[in-house]
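ugh ok fine here u go
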Amino acid sequence: MRYFLMLASIAGITALDQWTKALTLARIPLYGHVPVIDGLFHLTYVQNTGAAFSSFEGMQWLFALIFAVFTVWLLWEFSGKRLPFKPLDRALIVAIYAGGLGNMIDRLRLGFVVDMIEVDFINFPVFNVADCFITCGCIALLLHLIFFNKEFWKEEKK
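structure:
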């Protein structure tokens, strides 16, 4: 049951991400601007060949390698329970992975990542749904490991 929920979550998050990107590609021209909530955010379609803030631009092989390593680690970790993760930790790791999968699908299919969410209240790069899951998942996982999963940091006594 645990693996079914994990796979269903990955599929659901990835589907949501790919759906928003398909809508963007179908309805917004490149660099097009669609207001959503005035003063809060709008949609702007951009193509990102890098990572956050367009860092490592054009290094698709690096992103593929990182994703492959993350995939192998995820399979190893979830099959063998190697680290003392709690269920919430595992759910957050699944969210991070699903976001990475959504962006990797874009990289392999299109050669770039479709970004479309642009916030108006702060100067921040355009991002997408997958980026939200990656960023929020990483922050929440880190906070949970630091403040609520004390077992994670205990050294195993032999």
